[in-house]
Amino acid sequence: MRRALSTPLALRLRGYVLPLVVLIAVWIYISATTETFRGDAAFFSVLEGFPLMGLVALGLAVTIIAGELDLSVGSMAAVAGAIAVRAADAGLVGAIVIAVAVGTLLGAIQGGLIAKIGINSLVFTIGTLILLRGVAWLLCGNAPLPLEDVTVSDPLLERYGIFSPASITALVVFVIFGLFLAYTRYGREIYAIGGARAEAAAAGVSRTRPLVLAFAISGGLASMAGALATMRGGSAAPENYADLLLAGAAAALLGGISLYGGRGTVLNVAFGVAILTAVTAGLAARGEPNSTVQLVTGVLLLLVIAVEFIASRVARRSTLASDAGNLGPSG
Amino acid sequence: MERAGLRAEQPEPLAAGGAAAPAGGRAEWVPLAIIYGLLAAGTIFVAAITPNFLSASNFEAILRNTALVGIVAVAMTPITLSGNFVSLGISQSAMAAMLGFIFLIREGWSQPIAVLAVLAGLVVIGIAQGFIVSAGLNPVLTTLAAGAIIFGIAAELTEGRVIRMGENRVGWGNDELLGIPLEVVWFAVVTIVVTLLITKTVIGRHTVLTGANRESAEISGISFRWVTIVAFVIFSVGLTIAGILNAGGFGQGEINSLSTLTIDSIAALLVGGVAIAGGEGSPLRSAGGALLIGVISNVMVLNDFSTGGRLAVQGGVVVIVVILLELLRRRRAVR
Fold first, then answer.
1. Where are the beta strands (DSSP E) in chain A?
2. What are the boundaries of each domain within chain B?
3. Cα B69 from Cα B267, distance rounded (Å)
4. Pairwise CB contact (< 8 Å): B322 & A124
């Protein structure tokens, strides 16, 4: 980021061109072929992708930027949903805050263990994926857990034009983390350990703090996503949100977050979420089942990692610079 | 490839020096002894506190429930050994094998032909994934995406309905060989065959070497692509066996059949102590991990644990074992 800020504007914006073009193309195609995806309704449904898939994608993106991956986000969201329902006596905001606090703490513990033990994050978070899923079952009492007082969640059901309370919350969170990652020292440390871990260590960046932060953010945001969606739906279910990992990862990478770490911004995530939500909304409007959404998401995920891989190969060939942390060559 | 973190072939700097313990050497016996020691100790302990645990029928139940997970975990071991982590699309592939077999039998295909057709299909899917992963794409996300694609296609083809074998139902579903259930026999066969493949063949040794240190393996002429593709083929054969055995047992299935297989078999592999960064572990350890989890689940069922309780304990065991093994490995690396 430090580098990005000192480079010409054109170079800084280059990472957004492709996602923007894809988004516009997808938008035009879907609104042309789907009657319900037009005007305000289209904007509303795309914005509605941000509270659930968007927040998860943002958290995942932070761990990917740090050069890791948090596979436990789906289970974390389910746990948070159950906590929010159990804590509904604290009021809507109180319940969500409690769920997010627990998720952030769990995430921070994960990050701390990953950093301190030097364990691979994929392995560790597969373990916590299973563990937290079990916790979600226990918290739900092994059955769907409805809100006792459904009126608690009424404010979430309102709608202001193309916005809803949930989408406004999510957008505010996007702005906050966009600023945090780009302009604070802690945020830049996350980029540093992801882009070039050895160099970052040599420059005196400890990997503990950025990893704890990255996993705390991903745990907290997955929890916020789960809590918001669960309160809105009025009921927590132990098997919920298992598909979120696929959708979140696909959205983050579609927007241009680099799987190789250290690159991509919150704006990239936002583009990715918008693209994937538009596609999902288009499929849903045609009455396609969830399995088709998964199919398309899977294809998009494969495509985008393949494209990035090929691009990195081409880039590597066309440059002599071997420094992994460089913004990259002109090819 | 030069970046840290997500890349399979890039172990953490700390582990790079010492993790390359040779498989089959003395170091291999310690974790193996720990797993089977734990298994024996745990079994004796729960036998003392749990009525019915020691009955022959209960042992059969444990082995039966463990068999499918064990077959998959053992067959996945070469993928992990070669440094390609694990597949996150296990359930979907096994489900595809199961539904494919049921469909072909219902359509009146003869059993051997149906088996071969399903095997061919699964192997093609496996080779495709192995090819993509060996090109350097993230294996976890590739298999996750592949799983979603397979699931979507299967849902499309079956329209979400239950597929039944109908009047052509196969007769061997609940067969036994010398009193041992069929799937348990297959579990043993797969474990033996994969063990022999890893320890006695050139490609097996190459697999372990590649996982231990990919760079030096490639310098000495080992093809990462070939190793990875072979690992995915072995995995696909295991998935086919598991899917067809399940098809024979139930005679029907739908897209959500076998949905817990992904988590269960990864848990077995991790509890077995197969180093996920590659180069360390063995099919026998994965089998031990599957049995250990099988015994734990069984005890919890006998003691009326809920689904959540069982899943939480299983996850807890995985997390603890993963942490302990990592600490062990680091101590060895420091020495």
1. 145-146, 235-236
2. 24-40+52-334
3. 9
4. yes
ipTM: 0.85
**Whether B251 contacts B164, CB under 8 Å:** yes
What CATH number has the domain bearing residue A53? 1.10.3470
On whether residue A326 sits in a domain, the answer given is: no
Q: Do A260 and B6 touch (CB under 8 A)?
A: yes
pLDDT, mean of residues B40-65: 76
With respect to residue A331, please indicate whether it lies within any of the assigned structural domains.
no
The amino acid sitting at B37 is G
Model confidence, pTM:
0.86
Q: Which chain B residues contact residue A260 at CB under 8 A? A: 3, 6-7
Residues of B in contact with A196 (CB under 8 A): 3
B274 touches chain A (CB under 8 A): no
Are A298 and B2 within 8 A, CB to CB?
no
Q: Which of B137, B329, B122 is nearest to B224 (CA)?
A: B137
Q: Rounded to 5 degrees, what are φ and ψ at A134?
A: -60, -40
Mean pLDDT is highest, among A56-65, A230-239, A260-269, for A56-65
Query: In Å, how far are A174, B2, B9, B206 from A118, measured between CA atoms?
Result: 30, 18, 16, 26
Distance from C-alpha of A25 to C-alpha of A15, rounded to nearest angstrom: 17
Domain B24-40+52-334 has CATH 2.30.110: no
* Among A44, A273, A49, CA closest to A160: A44
Phi and psi torsions of A72, nearest 5°:
-90, 5
- Model confidence at B146, pLDDT cuts 50, 70, 90, reads very high
Domain assignment of residue A254, yes or no: yes
For residue B312, which residues of chain A lie inside 8 Å, CB to CB?
A: 131, 134-135, 137-138
